[in-house]
User: Fold these one by one.
Assistant:
Number 1:
Amino acid sequence: MGNKDVLLSVKNLTVEYTSEGEVIHAVNNVSFELEKGKTIGLVGETGAGKTSIARAILRILPEPPARVPNGEVVFEGKDLLKIREEDMQKIRGKEISMIFQDPMTALNPIMRVGEQIAEVIKLHEHCSKQESIEKAKKMLEMVGIPGERFYEYPHQFSGGMKQRVVIAMALACSPTLLLADEPTTALDVTIQAQVLDMINDLKQKLNTSMIMITHDLGIVAEVCDTVAVIYAGEIMEYGTKEQIFHNPQYPYTIGLFGSLPDLNSDVERLSPIEGLPPNPADLPRGCAFHPRCPYATEECQKEHIELKDIGEGHLCRCCRLQEIAAQKAKEV
Amino acid sequence: MSTAVNDTHVGVRTRRQGQLGQVMHRLRKNKVAMLGLVIMLLLIAMALLSPWIAPYNYAKTSKADRYASPSWQHLFGCDAMGRDILSRIMYGARASLWLGLMSTLVATVIGVLLGSLVGYYGGRVDNIVMRILDIIQAIPGMLLSIAISAALGSGIGNTILALSIGGVPMTVRLLRGSILTVRKQEYIEAAEKINCSKWRVITAHILPNSIAPVIVSVTMGIGNTILQAASLSYIGLGVQPPTPEWGAMLSEGKSMITKYPHLCIFPGLAIMLVVLCLNMLGDGLRDAMDPKLKN
Amino acid sequence: MANPMIEVRHLKKYFNTPKGTLHAVDDISFKIEKGRTMGVVGESGCGKSTLGRTIIHLLEPTDGQIFLDGKDITHVDKKQMHEINERMQIVFQDPYSSLNPRQTVEDVIREPLKLSKRYKTRAEIDRKTDELMQLVGIDERLRHAYPHELDGGRRQRVGIARALSLNPDFIVCDEPVSALDVSIQAQVLNLLQDLQEKQGLTYMFVTHDLSVVRHISDDICVMYLGQLVETSPAKELFIKPLHPYTKALLSAIPSTDIDHPHERIKLQGEITSPVDPKPGCRFAARCPYAAEACKQPQQLEEILPNHYISCCRARELNKDIL
């Protein structure tokens, strides 16, 4: 990764939750960079830590029980974890904003839809009430909702439209960075397609950079430039979209591809990843994936494995890559 | 199929520990609730054993001891007729506790039966029953008890009836609300699909999962009913003299409250103690019945 | 030729709501042969779950007929219902609400066995319980576990064991993996396929996930707002979709093939309401090819062998494929 116009640089981010005496290691030493205008996908299952990463960046983790014992989140030269809350408030909603997963609960049910957008605008752009209403109506039009619907309430909108309103809110102040947490999981396929297209359009128009959190590899393929595969709070594999899709290396990544039914291939049986995701309060020693890895050996349990560059910025956290490749060559 | 790695703590029981067992276990850990329970049990024991352990006969009058202040001879003093207040409190516990418990029991049984019917069948049955209960609830509780009591006459049996009717609408409403949520769960549909009779669906699946709020409300309700019983006696309905009853004792002492406060203080304290303990127990039960709270 | 395991003719299920009559399932006809899986796919509000529940009599049909192995089971009394339950079962979508929180794994599996008159002694019931637990892959040590102590995948296995306990021939799988984590989905899907082979089961697999339905089904029905728009053998649906809605649906799926991005058919507007709908094709409001003729009730026509479609313009729009 060259130093080409890096917008966001996350270093060694760690997030812990304390619950009833247990410490839950949600995010463990995560580092990545995002270039301006690009999209990075954070891929992983529920509980892998992806949402915690996004919330840590925006500093909206519930503290307590969450804690950020160490890490740096450098955005436009400032470390977001160290600035004052007042300064962070100026950034939230304006320079960095977030699209949450569930449109049903992301909107205030007793506030008019347009007013919720206008509220964001008025807070950050220091304009008059009338101006904020005008701008809000324009945002609604931009996401394909007639401006007159400004005065309606969330319950009068369908799921897809609510999510579009949420997106309008997130983009109202033309943020530089957009965090999207599974924005289309709760939506029907055809509506999902509309929403993804719209996000892509707006991204190009406004040159927004994006962190897309999802478990759907199809969405990653359509929307992301780089991909980070997250497991048990760590990045296990990182690379460009081409690197990850054409040449996945980490056994969990390969497992993910193999376990999802794919429209483009025909298999008799899926190859599920055996076992269950680990308990974040009690992570396995060594490589967090070793209990489920078909290639695991003694070595994998000993020490924590570091990320290695396996070529042109493609990073992988597996200590047995060469042996696995040799094994596979023999099997063929 | 491979088994998962980190869930070795799950469900490892070699014998069945029923839901009841789990609830009791959690309850035992709650010191406040256990204190309430222990005191209640002691009070009940006291009530039952009162003929043998009371220092004096509750009906024995004595001109010389009229309005006697508390002393070593009469720990709680004597009332207007020279009767020992301590003995009357001990014996009065019978009437007060019995009234409270029985009325709540009757109200609960009727309430659960009605609530189950109404919650399960819904429709017109639901409408009719709920409107009748609305009417009953519209009448202020005390007024209702008084009216029924006056109509039926005094005595413990009639008082129980009078007190219980007022408690039915609340129980039905609670249970019905609970049942409406539980009914929508897919395991109810599943039960029908595996050939459970309607009766079994209600008793084995719906009720156990919807009864919790009722149980808690009932424990707290006993205290309230005792207060109501006391109020009835206070105005002359309910239990008749010479049978002692805490509320009646309060009533008898009210005219002398400035000169001889001990006539009211002790029955008042007794009522307060029971209500307090039952509330502590009710709180503890509510917490114990919530499976989401960790052990 | 033997009777199909399940046949549905002009099945309708309407609900009375304060706003009007909701046409949840409107004139659906299809057949499912023994041992095969019929996938039923569609977006929210299409009526696929209602269809499944109506076929197995969790809901009473408003009109039309249902045949089980050639026998008309549209209207049944209590006794017949008991017998039907031993032949038709259901696996539910939500692993969190499909199990009684107060029953252990063992309780859930034993209950139908106890209620059925087939097992007389406790020993027989115990044996069958063990067998079922092994069949679906639930570890022995979880016998006395409560649902809240199990993860979604295991709960679904318990639900599947329960569905199998009465030895049914036909199972409606109502979105059985939609609520599960992606890495668990594959495990449960494989289990369902294995069971189908071992026990000769016939499935109706309801889902909104097109990749899953393609993987697991032999034939697929596509539904839109209560209407059946297209039905064909599974693989063929994806190679030769004929109905405009099916085409739009398929093009909407984000593809993992990064080298060949496909053109997306953009649908206008929102899904219309299934309450008191106007006659004719309900997709017309959003269809890029809508015409006057679409306002008439559409007929289900066999355009290719075993490939039925409900669109008056189908032949004309697919000239190049046909």
Number 2:
Amino acid sequence: MFLDFVIVLIKAGVVLFALLSLAGLLTWAERKQSAFMQDRIGPNRANLGNITAFGLLHVMADGIKMIAKEDFIPEGANRALHTLAPAAALFPALVVFAVIPFGDVLVIGGKEIPLQVANLNVGIVYIFAIASLAVYGTMLAGWASNNNYSLMGGLRASSQMISYEVSMGLSILGILMIYQSAQLDVIVREQGQLLWGFLPKWGFFLQPVAFFLFVGAALAENKRVPFDLPEGESEIIGYFVEYSSMKFGMFFLAEFIEIVIVSGLVTTLFFGGWQFPYLQADGFHWPFELGIWHLPHLLVVLLQIATFSVKVLVGCWILLVVRWTLPRFRYDQVMRLGWKMMLPLALANLVVTAVIVLLVT
Amino acid sequence: METFLFWVFAIVGVGCGIMVVFHRNPMSSAIYLIVTMLCLAGFYALLAGPFVAVIQVLVYAGAVMVLMLFVIMMLNLREETLRREGSMIAWLVAGLIGLVLVLYVVPLFPRTSAGTPPAAFGTIEDVGSKLFTVYILPFELTSVLLLIAIIGAVTLATRRTL
Amino acid sequence: MIPISHYLTVSAILFTTGAIGVLMRRNALIILMSLELMLNAVNLSFVAYARMFNDVGGHVFVFLSITVAAAEAAVGLAILLTIFRTRETVDVDTLHLLQR
């Protein structure tokens, strides 16, 4: 009993550590990636005794800057809410990763450890519940700044977020119907089966429309380009103008953690999670009756974790590339896209999937 | 563990529930109500109802309270216009009557401790199978009600330019 | 194990607090919020009884009750906005034009 508790704590610690380090690295990767795409070098000045390490020290420099700056609360603002808003923005981002599996069951000394922090029965619905709590950070930030422009920015951001929550939820229902469960580890395990003998049953092959809808809606929920009008750095006042130092750092960090979360969710639901194609629990089972390669258990688990990490990293990289490829939407275009185009498409996808599932089974 | 969680949720929930009613600023009341709703979601999880717990967070704390916060921000009431509401004596009498009512009802509650629930109690499959077979009529009627509510809210909130 | 009466006591306290809020406060927004508090308290007692009798019907009822409460909050707030546009106040004591 106590051992189980300690194991869960260790898993949670590992997941949080990986998440936060990846989010920190992403701040560096974003600037370097955008620099390479724009044919320039990017940040490379931060150094420790003339060792620049490709600009990786900028992550540390950013952290030091954010901790050392003056932390002020604007005059007339609600002090409690001003301090609460960054925490309310960071908390949902950290908690979502609890239900995402990053490997199959690990067997150490006869003890089975599922590589998932919490195996909830209501897995996917839990993710949407936490995503709907993420709206509060922006709303409270906009309100608590005692600044009309930030209030408008906060209202803009939160109305965008609540509009795209609906399409996000509806697009995932097709996945729920196909894999017959809301538990994420069951969904990932089901994606190991083969269609027509050689194609893994990944969500991307079975629900392509839902994939694009989900990625679009998750990008909008995350206030990421092309939907980043609420923060719109150079042209419009966002909801965190009155925040400085670590509070702004928390908003900033929450956004990058959400990139990792979107990538993790897309990997789990649409690209097979930790499934390496044709890798079962005891080795590789090649299709077309080509044979079986047996592998030791720890190597299989390591391969699964590595596969998951590579997929998440590729997803993050694609999201970073999208930022510097597409121009920004205008606010009325964002609302029209969410309500008039994504929502009917998601509903149509749901109906078609339901009909097909009913006909096939 | 369950006892500890129950008392934490109970004290925080009841405390924030009382603060909802006694605060002057509607924004603070809304924040306290959100915390109360999250504590209630914790109660539902303790009572072997994982599905209703996440639905409570998703719908109530995530959508209904966001709507209320939107309206509070739009109305944008200044602190000075919220005057003192009701005299101290009125509040004391109301509190006493409330206490009497609660003390009258509490001895009527069953004292049993519930046994272990069946294996898949309150899961999505359990609630879903009941919702779509036995309770299908309320479900369909609720969907019609939601449609009516959408139409009503949009009609009322649209500014009619005469 | 916590006896079910404890959950029901919490529900009773929350319900009474919400009722006091509806009757005593003048700000329409806070009245609506106290109403939501009452509905939540009733939902808690439904789930507690469902646990006691091992009947999932309680959970189904809570699900539908949450939905209806959401719809009612939306319409109530729309009405409040309409009143605020013409009267410039949300004080329910001033809404007595239909009185004699």
Number 3:
Amino acid sequence: MRRPLAVLTVNVALALIALVTLFPLAWMVSASFMAPGEASTYPPPVLPHAATLANYRLLFAEHGILRQVVNSLFISLLATGLSLAFNLTAGYAFAKLRFAGRERVFRMLLGALIIPAQVTMMPLFLMLRGMGLVNTYAGALVPWLASVFGIFMVRQYALSVPDEMLEAARIDGASELRIFVSVVLPVLKPIIVTLAVLTFLGAWNDFMWPLIVLTDHDVQTLPVALAALSREHVQDAELMMAGAVITVLPVLLLFLALQRYYVRGLLVGSVKG
Amino acid sequence: MKPSRAGWLFAAPALLAIAVFFVVPVVAALVMSATDFDIYALADLRNTRFVGLGNYFQLLQTPLFWRALLNTLFFVVVGVPLSIAVSLGTALLLHSRLARFTGFFRTALFAPVVTTLAAVAVVWIFLLHARYGTLNYALSWLGLRPVDWLGDPRWAMPAIVLLSVWKNFGYNMIILLAGLQAIPAELYEAAQLDGAGPGAAFRHVTVPALAPMLLMVSILTMAGHFQIFAEPYVMTQGGPAERTVTVLYLMYENGFKWWSLGSASAVAFVLFLFMLGTSLLQGRLAGRAGWSS
């Protein structure tokens, strides 16, 4: 194949795949601005005849979806904060602080990765029910406290912190907490952003656990509320697309803004030795 | 404070959280799977009896359990190779020296990965609509008859596979792309000197170099596919004709709709055993093929 033709083939193929990949998302946005019933016509329209915000207005005014937006935002932000607090300290300890049984405990943690989290859901639900935490933010947050993957990711990054730096601070008489806060954390900044983005997206997009533990409409997250709404409004494509946009857009924008950090986390997970 | 004490103190909060909210529940689930814990036990724990392997035997005699297992295996066996093939194909295209605007294409192809599964499942309900869906419209250009994707028992699971490939291929694409970029250029130059064309170079340089990564990717992708739940919950509620009841869907219904938490725990452990078994099997097969990572 001659070179210009080859260049054309590769790039046209990529453009077509990108078009097919982006189409569902583009259609979601477009249909969310259509008048009720407009999307359910043949041939399916690509763009709204006359763009309207009616679906969004309906969601906020009639269905009070602001409540779920706030719930999702709160739970995801709290999950991010908690996950950082637990995983940064532990990841640093496993990388840089010597303590008895460290390697053994770390191997056990990695071993636990093969157990799917769904196994825990029945006892966890009973446990939280006993503590009165069903239908509370706290109940939804419990699985996000500490994660083996988060600890692993922080540890891999923290291994590159030079020991001399920590020793110098110790000789200066700094406490371990002080060293962690003012010496280690600044160096860990990139992985902090990565862990934060991954946790926020994970918590925002999570479905099964919030579905189980948040049955009350008022405490539900967006994905759970959207799933419930779609069962009642099977015919209202336009309304449902507006709901999908509200759910998907925040995470999509966050990803676009912090893409570099997100991809780093993805690759850390893939090269564990 | 000595570093050794500090080490335990720094690790303690996370280890405690994992112990209380993961390890204890896993053990409790194993115990629960050997009891008849149900809605009456929910009211009063004394209504629970030890039944040994009773739940497991009960499941083996339940047609819906076999249906769920079969549906899940279909999703895994068809979905995983398809998904990895698309990931590898797009990674190769992006890695090609001829590709332009790779930054844009990479982001565009990756975008579905970060979207909310439950929300895009709702979007796909309408894209797959038998009458007004875009997919059937596109098929009509090719002269194909419309398919009732989510209403036809034969097509519901394949439709969910389509959604899943679209949603997930970007993830492995990024990983495989990183793998391709790590292959030393000298290997290709040497192959070229030996007279290898693009096809031979792919077979003898790319595939062997990528093999350990492909193995890891396929084990992780399989684990993810075994855990399919949101798609059938949102799109089909297990129907039509129970063709999209998956193992986790069954666990959810048993546990949180009928409150048979003992039986649901047994379902969860069956899933775990399947995931463990297939991972070990894949590792073993790969070891035999000489793909040690």
